[in-house]
């Protein structure tokens, strides 16, 4: 099983990005999925999660700005990020849980003018 995250980049404050995470193998539809981020000098922290039933949860700081979604037919997890702020700058990781933890390699999001 491999998780490949993409979609990061440099964006100005107030801008938008959409992250994608393609999951190889056959576990995607059975997996709880999530996005995490690690800012410089900080620990990795949860951003948003989505269960197999589609139930979503978000950290308070991104509520109303970020949307997590999944496409089971494409084995892909998404994170739509709007109204980005400098404090959203971090490496973003996708995560899957199905009997064990699986992590992607991370994609860097930089919010700066």
Which terms would index this structure?
113 residues, mainly beta, four-stranded antiparallel β-sheet, 11 strands
Distance between the termini: 37 Å
Query: What value does the average pLDDT take?
Result: 96
Count of individual beta strands = 11
Strand content: over 45%
Structural class designation: mainly beta
Poorly predicted residue ranges: none
The major β-sheet equals: 7 strands, mixed
Assign an overall shape: globular
Spell the H/E element sequence.
EEEEEEEEEEE
Characterization of the model:
The protein has 113 residues and is mostly beta strands. The chain has no helices and 11 strands. The chain has strands spanning 3-6, 9-11, 17-23, 32-38, 45-50, 56-58, 66-71, 76-81, 90-97, 101-103, 107-111. Strands 2, 4, 5, 6, 9, 10 and 11 form a 7-stranded mixed sheet that branches. Strands 1-3-8-7 form a 4-stranded antiparallel sheet, with no helix packed on it. A hairpin with a 3-residue loop joins strand 9 and strand 10. The termini are far apart.
What's a quick, concise take on this entry?
The protein has 113 residues and is an all-beta fold. The chain has strands at 3-6, 9-11, 17-23, 32-38, 45-50, 56-58, 66-71, 76-81, 90-97, 101-103, 107-111.
Set out the fold topology.
Blueprint: E1 3-6, E2 9-11, E3 17-23, E4 32-38, E5 45-50, E6 56-58, E7 66-71, E8 76-81, E9 90-97, E10 101-103, E11 107-111
Parallel strand pairs: 2-11
Antiparallel strand pairs: 1-3, 3-8, 4-5, 4-9, 5-6, 7-8, 9-10, 9-11
């Amino acid at each position: 099983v491999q998780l490949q995250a993409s979609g990061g980049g440099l964006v100005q404050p107030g801008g938008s990005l959409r992250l994608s995470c393609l999951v190889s193998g056959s576990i995607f539809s059975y997996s709880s999925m999530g996005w995490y981020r690690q800012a410089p000098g900080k620990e990795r922290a949860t951003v948003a999660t989505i269960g197999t039933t589609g139930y979503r949860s978000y950290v308070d700081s991104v509520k109303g700005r970020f949307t997590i979604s999944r496409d089971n037919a494409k084995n892909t997890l998404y994170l739509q990020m709007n109204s980005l702020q400098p404090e959203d700058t971090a490496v973003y990781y996708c995560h899957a849980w199905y009997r064990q933890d699986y992590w992607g390699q991370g994609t860097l999001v930089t919010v700066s003018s």
